[in-house]
Amino acid sequence: MAEKQDYRPMWTELGLDLEGHDGLLKVLGDSYSEVYLHQENRPSAMEYFDFVVSEAHGLRIKELMDAKDEGRKVIGTFCLYVPEEIILALDGISVGLCAGAEIGAEKAEEYLPRNLCALIKSFMGFELAGLCPYFRACDIVIGETTCDGKKKAYELLEDIKETYVMELPQKKEETDRALWKAEGYKFVEVCERVTGKKLTPDNLKEAIRTVNDRRRAQLRLRDARRASPPPISGRDALLVNQIAFYDNPARFTESVNKLCDELETRTEGKVSPGDNGAPRVVISGCPMALPNWKLPFIVESSGADVVAEESCVGERGFRTLVDEDGETLDEMIDNLVDRYLTIDCACFTPNPERVEHVLETSREFDADGVIHYSISFCTPYMVEAKKVEDALSAAGIPLLKIETDYSQGDVGQLQTRIDAFLEMLKARHS
Ligand code: BJ8
Question: Would the pTM count as exceeding 0.85?
Fold first, then answer.
């Protein structure tokens, strides 16, 4: 294996706080080892994803910096609604900037209220504390008018980095679709300005195919988890879907397909990292950005299998593909608009599709129960949990509602509640 490179000069150039960053890498390494590397019977193809995580702040950032040296632009995003195809078509590199760790929260709280969603505090804190090389590598960041916390945080981000905010409608009627299409065109203009390239039917068509291929690979991974016992742990599948936001799309797709080849063989031999007959759990709700592994780790360490995530880092992110039949730019933009409006974030009202999707996913994966996961202070998901609860209750599927943040302070309490929930699921079986 090649000798590990010294990335410190690159981090210095990016203006990172080297001491704090060393601390972050140490905490992440320890946590990764506990959550991932101690699993038994993992698919060997997870080796690629272990490598990506180990080089997330090293080799991947170097790739971004090398691409920038060649004149390409890096565009940061925080939400599934930002159409990545347009960035790719213009030879830009899209990176997800949502963060899932508590480190940096103290710095964030100098600017933001304490009682704010941990995801927002985390991405702000990572940047403000000089810990996020992705943020520093970006030429522009793209926000969106989803929840209030994010909207207002983008106003603060503008002081640090060029920020453009897409106006996302809150409903899905004809006028909202027209607004979203106009926003799509405005986004094209912004990306053309930043990249210095022109959107054409050819480059957009290719980008649509590239991103669809990635979604198809993620769908294949999703389908592999329907097996009983599942051939891969929920936390490994989550990790793969977290990495989708950072990795080179074509390389990622190839690696996921390779993993799926192995999973399909494992399924035939009933090889699984979990126990045969373990309760099957779907996690539904807020996204879990890297390195937020807290909940699936507790659930799986308690003897259950997490078989699906009804979340943006999960089903919601790849459920639907963009129609590849468009020929003119306008047809392709229409196809993008239609696909992106199928995303069922709780920021929309009304949002019956999401409730339907939780039910469908639970049935399709033969789930014994659902854990509804809200990040504390995330009003849209916390409120929508009631609709999810009612629908599941009518279908006879047990639900556990969890509200938590990125701290480890409530792990004991979560463990107790999850143990009790899993005991109840097991009792229903016997
Ligand atoms: S499409 S879920 S990525 S907005 S958890 S910051 S909603 S208070 S992340 Fe999201 Fe796009 Fe929707 Fe997905 Fe606000 Fe809630 Fe925090 Fe959230």
Answer: yes
